[in-house]
Specification:
510 residues; eight-stranded parallel β-barrel; 10 helices; 27 strands; 25% strand; binds alpha-L-arabinofuranose
Length: 510
């Protein structure tokens, strides 16, 4: 009898414990950093249907409404996201791209074979003018990724002169001949991409030397434009790469170091984008949450060599990567986008926000029809993916001041921290708290200790769906969309709420 009573007490206390709220302290600190709006950047590569047949349908297209060949529906959707920057033309494609082939009369442009992505032949009709004019239209900073792997120093500095020089010079004159008087004044320049792999299979030491050479000649075309040089960075946990760049490159030659990290479960068997099972979901989240560890450790190295924080960390490729949808060729990386992608985007963006002191830019891969896209198209149809909605809900953090958050005792989903949080205060004094519960089955009661903050009203939005596999399709484009969340209550300096399983919530406090 005594034994049963003890067992009952044990089970009861386990249940009680498992229902206890997770407590999160959210504070305001005068020295906490601003969350750079550039963390909410995007990436568009010449890959599959990202540029051609996605973003760009051609100036002559009379069926799909467009502005200079770029789809109007996409322009409108991107404007709603306040996209701060856009990286182009690659990716691996960048180290095969010769920009001079993409300017001047279209009929004179040579073709290019996209050797990395399906071997398709492109006509170079989308080039520098199209891209930079699009960025102007979107109010986004362009980020040009330059060819180091198969290009030359001269080719790169000619590109800088073409886009940035407002005086008389061979490239600025050519730009004017091609119809553009004013320079675009491009600030962000990538010096090669994945130079440890598709960008040239270089060693870190060799690339550091090459980088110094390229970076030396880049600035100086326009007094006002600060040229921001980004060194091609490590993949995942390649800490030797970051250490070599930080040690071997003089910091006055390098404004940022990049990092690439995809949530991929196995490069030879990435699993389906929609019909994944519980095990694949778990592995995807395990990979996505590694971003926290990678960013922390790369920053530790950067802190060692650059304690003043002069060199930024740019995570200029991130996102979920699965097997391409079966009906398309594998080289085009077209995948669907589900609640799993909501969980990946929400947790990764929280990591970037929380490391805002050093992480100054990030670029989701990729914008249209490729990998974790925010937009999918099918001829004249266009849909916004669940990830689009995450970017829309999180845009409130752009350029806001980080409010440090501390989770006291997280609950676990198979050994992974189930709750992810970040918070900020914008210039009007509004507070935003983004919360993600990655647990696929269990709701999570949460208490946010905001006793140091002046919040009188609370409102919110939630993004979730019945099943993890739910997604938006061309037949059902609104299946996954944000809804108002009324479940948060203010009580004695605390916000109390329960986050449903596999849900993302953004609260607003005033
Ligand atoms: O985003 C797809 C590819 O992933 C990019 O071209 C490359 O940089 C990375 O390996």
């Amino acid at each position: 009898m005594k034994y049963f009573a003890l067992l009952f007490c044990l089970i009861f206390s386990i249940q009680l414990f498992s229902q206890q709220s997770v407590v999160v302290q959210i504070t305001e600190e005068s020295n906490s950093p601003q969350i750079s709006k550039h963390i909410y950047g995007h990436f568009a590569e010449h890959l599959g249907r990202c540029i051609y047949e996605g973003l760009y349908v051609g100036e002559e297209n009379k069926i799909i409404p467009n502005t200079d060949g770029v789809r109007n529906d996409i322009i409108e959707a991107l404007k709603e996201l306040n996209i701060p920057n856009l990286r182009w033309p690659g990716g691996c494609f960048a180290d095969t791209y010769h920009w001079k082939d993409g300017v001047g009369p279209k009929e004179d442009r040579p073709t290019i074979v996209n050797r990395w992505w399906g071997g398709t032949t492109e006509d170079n009709s989308f080039g520098t003018h199209n891209f930079l004019n699009l960025c102007e239209e979107l109010g986004a900073e362009p980020y040009l990724s330059a060819n180091v792997g198969s290009g030359t120093v001269q080719e790169l500095i000619d590109w800088v002169q073409y886009t940035n020089h407002d005086g008389i010079s061979p490239m600025a004159d050519w730009r004017r001949e091609n119809g553009r008087e004013e320079p675009w004044k491009v600030k962000y320049w990538g010096v090669g991409n994945e130079t440890w792999g598709c960008g040239g299979n270089m060693t870190a030491e060799y690339y550091a030397d090459i980088y110094r050479q390229y970076a030396t000649f880049m600035p100086g075309w326009s007094g006002e434009t600060e040229v921001y040089r980004i060194a091609s960075g490590a993949s995942e946990d390649d800490y030797h790469w970051t250490e070599t760049l930080m040690k071997n490159v003089p910091h006055e030659l390098m404004e940022a170091v990049a990092l690439h990290d995809y949530a991929v479960i196995d490069w030879s068997n990435k699993g389906p984008s929609v019909n994944f099972d519980d095990e694949i979901y778990f592995k995807s989240m395990e990979q996505a949450l590694k971003m926290e560890e990678y960013v922390t450790k790369h920053i530790e190295i950067m802190d060692k060599y650059d304690p003043e924080g002069n060199v930024d960390l740019f995570v200029d490729e991130w996102g979920g990567w699965y097997d391409a949808e079966p009906e398309v060729a594998s080289g085009v990386l077209f995948q669907q986008n589900t609640i799993r992608d909501v969980m990946i985007a929400g947790t990764v963006l929280n990591t970037f926000n929380n490391h805002a002191k050093r992480v100054k830019m990030a670029n989701l891969a990729q914008m249209v029809n490729v990998l974790q896209a925010v937009i999918l198209t099918d001829e004249e149809k266009m849909i916004k993916t669940p990830t689009y909605h995450v970017m829309h809900m999180y845009k409130v953090h752009q350029d806001a001041q980080l409010l440090p958050s501390k989770i006291e005792e997280n609950t676990m989903f198979r050994g992974l921290p189930a709750l992810s949080v970040s918070a900020s205060k914008d210039e009007t004094g509004k507070i935003h708290i983004s919360l993600v519960n990655i647990d696929p089955e269990n709701n999570m009661p949460v208490e946010l200790d905001i006793s140091g903050l002046d919040i009188k009203n609370i409102s919110g939005q939630i993004l979730t769906s019945e099943k993890l596999q739910d997604h938006n399709s061309f037949d059902n484009p609104e299946k996954v969309a944000p809804e108002e969340f009324k479940g948060a209550k203010l009580k004695k300096g605390r916000i109390l709420l329960t986050i449903p399983a596999h849900s993302l919530i953004v609260l607003q406090g005033k």
